[in-house]
Amino acid sequence: MTTPRAALPFDLLTPTERPFFERFGDGLVVVLPARRPDPNGWGRGGPPHGGAWVHVGEDGKVRAFTGKVEVGQGTRTALSLLVAEELSLSLATVELTMGDTNVSPWDMGTFGSRSMPDAGEHLRTTAAAARAVVLELAAARLGVAPGTIELSEGRARVRGASGARSVGYGDLVKGLRRVEMVPPSTRPVPPPEWTVAGRPTPAVGGRDVVTGARQYTSDLHPPGMLHGRLLLPPSFGAKLRHVDLSAALALPGVTAVHEGDLVGVAAPDLLTARAALKSVRAEWATYPQPSEREIVEYLRQHPAEGEDFWDVLHEKVGDVTAALASAPIALHETYTTAYIAHVPMETHAVLASWEEGRLTVWMGSQTPFRARDALSDALGIPPSQVRVVVPPTGSGFGGKHAADLAVGAARLAQASGHPVRIVYTRKEEFTQAYFRPMAVIDIWSGAENDGTLTAWQFNDLNAGSAAARLPYKVPHQKIDNQPADSPLAQASYRALAATANNFARESHMDELAARVGADPVEYRLRHLADDRLAAVLRAVAERAGWLARPASPGPHPGRGRGIAVGLEKGGRVATFAEVEVHPDRRLEVVRIVTGFECGAIVHPANLRSQVEGGTIMALGGALFEVIHFENGRILNPKLSEYRVPRFHDVPPIDVVLLDRRDLPSQGGGETPLIAVAPAIANAIYDASGKRLRSLPLAPDGTIP
Amino acid sequence: MTAPETSNHATSVLRVNGADHPVSLQRERSLLYVLREELGLTGTKYGCGEGECGACKVLVDGVAVRSCTTSVGEVVGRSVTTIEGLAQGDRLHPVQQAFLDAGAFQCGFCIPGMILAAVSLLDRNPHPNKNEIRAAMDGNVCRCGGYLRILDAVQRASRLPGDPAEGPP
């Protein structure tokens, strides 16, 4: 069976083979190709990145395409603004397609705060190249030199001439079928000259949100659709021994599949599907698993082989062993963070549908191209026969990278001959998804009597390398991270390793400052090696009304303040926290100031929203979020037992944004989280003299 | 809208957004299930199924309730309003408009429940202070952490001329 060329996914065709005009009408297309991972070695020929392409149509609309997805972080609006800027358009004239593997350029996935520095840069460069062609076309049409043309609101006109000498983009590209590659010399508009980007703009699609019209994957319901459920293991490491589907199959309209480890049922309505799953008789073999109380020792004793683990860092400067041995002040402390859950408001959801041997899957995925490849592998069909589409998604936070649910839905759809939708229950979301890894971090530090750091040895176990490097000047350093064999499934999470490593480092810096009686802000500024981070720290200290004094005991017993900084993914953050430790040990966060700088700000309202929201999400992990587990079972797989931040947990949060129009835009979805936990831990110390080195700090609302 | 085929259960009439729908009163059918799966009103969201997140909130006789823990039998004879029934034609309800103006959403999944909780609150207390808003809406979770924007939106709505809970004139 061969697929007609016009139906093949664009990323599997060369740019000139792609049926742009058949699909989107005549016009101008400009392409910036993706750089896929080299099969002969990761990163050969440069780090892989997604592509971009832009279509200027006869209707005057500009369609832009990226492989990144929108899961609530607001990049749809920010990326659209960058395209609108280059082509001098209003936001409404730009239509951005995200994460549709049939027409989007290939992309690795939406993680690591890469949407702005990668997709943003690629889309604005591609749109800038389209602008150059539009200028050229307009000059020819109007009979003037390109330099005399100005673009505004989708029209090209001769500068200074009356309105008659102008032409709309749609007219310029009428009957055109031109594909251009982005020339290497293309220079987008420098941020200081932005007139569309960098200004207050409402987010696109808001009306559908407030009217309930926005359709998430879990809302899709094509005719004939069945509801699917999968049989899921009762605990980690459980193996299916025997399964009997006969009772399930006796129910009306039920389809059941059993292939390898996959057991699933589908039925015309959710209640029957639920009953069918209940009637599946399964025998599981379980094996003893480590429990929460022994987890630190377990991780220490089970380092994982790191060879296929890309996120490993080993760095050495100077002679840290000698420097530690000779330091007048030496400190060694251990810090830990807990397994926590993503808890996306929309649980994992997938809709799979087959048509003439071709599979389409709608899913809230942060990695649609990877999902396409996983489906292709699992189902034994070529990637060209699989299309993954990412509808609006009820958040992800790094938790929506897997494709196993999609494989289950595809199998059930194949077996039943109907589209099948699977939506995880909240309990399934808690027990079958993966978690933010637990981390165990050891720091050994050495300093002069005045506190000047001379040695720093940092061992991260099981979090990852992000933010493990020091933003401080220290002559002798050794920084390592080591993955462990986790007894729970663990993977990507918003700011995962950076949260853990930053908590350890910024807590430890405060411990050193306290040891020598230094002011925590002054102590950091003394060592900071990064001027941008120092500027953010000063801005936050000023906004918070920080007065220089050593930490603990503060002037008001019970009241304390703390500060912490972080540098990660190109962003700089400083967080100030003020807390009250009440006489009954109840902890109250009184106020927070977060300062953030990530280069030129593309969409200020959204960045503010990300910083506020990130700060609030980080409050949960800092204060009370924790997955409890015993012998492979999750003990608190419910929102009534796993506490997430609510209205009453949120103190006043003051956000200070530093807009650096002279610097490239970086992502803002993760780094704003990473200084929250240490700022609060430091404030608790200032308030009470108690140094807490494990997250969460106050799981039941009180400090230990 | 067709009545469910299950014949061994009583059927009744459910009034949703001003229209009557025949529904089965089968016990395990929650109001959420009927709204989403039988009436196709998907603006009401499933978030947790145990009444802990508020994503499924709808108005029953003007009061916000969690539709996931409400059986359909409990609301027969009463008036249910979902997020789809709040605007009048193209004209948004003032609370919807306030959420839009405040940019009070990220992924947006919790917003229908938030809006209905706010409409219910403002109906009882047209000018709540921040603590009253927090207390009334504490059962609604926004995992994106949009609470401050949502707080702002509810305050905006409470400052609008006229009674915000009444809807557009």
Largest sheet of chain A: 7 strands, mixed
Shape of chain B: globular
Number of DSSP helices of chain B? 5
Give the class-level CATH name of the largest domain in chain A.
Alpha Beta
Q: So, CATH architecture of the largest domain in chain A?
A: 2-Layer Sandwich
Measured by residues with Cβ under 8 Å of the partner chain's Cβ, the largest interface is: A-B, 55 and 57 residues
Number of strands of chain B: 5
Q: Whole-number radius of gyration of chain A?
A: 27 Å
* Mean pLDDT value of chain A: 95
Question: How many E strands of chain A?
Answer: 28
Unreliable parts of chain A: none
Total of DSSP H or I helical runs spanning 4+ residues of chain A = 17
CATH architecture of the largest domain in chain B: Roll
Give a written overview of the molecule.
The complex is a heterodimer of chains A (704) and B (169). By secondary structure, chain A is α+β, with helices and mostly antiparallel strands. Helix content of chain A is 27%, strand content 24%. In chain A, the strands form 7 sheets. Chain A has a 7-stranded mixed beta sheet with strand order 11-12-9-19-16-17-18, sandwiched between helices. A 5-stranded mixed beta sheet of chain A has the order 4-3-2-1-8. In chain A, β5 and β6 form a beta hairpin. In chain A, α10 (368-379) packs across α11 (404-416), α13 runs parallel beside α17 (676-688) and α16 packs across α17. Chain A is globular. With 169 residues, chain B is of the alpha+beta class. Chain B has 2 domains: 11-84, Roll (Ubiquitin-like (UB roll)); 94-161, Orthogonal Bundle (DNA polymerase, domain 1). Chain B is built from 5 helices and 5 strands, in the order ββαβββαααα. Chain B has helices at residues 31-38, 94-102, 111-124, 130-137, 147-159, and strands at 11-16, 19-24, 57-60, 63-66, 79-81. Chain B has a 5-stranded mixed beta sheet with strand order 2-1-5-3-4, with helices on both faces. In chain B, a hairpin with a 2-residue loop joins β3 and β4 (63-66). The model of chain B is unreliable at 1-7 and 163-169 (pLDDT under 50). Chains A and B meet through α5 and α16 of A and α1, α2, α3, α4 and α5 of B.
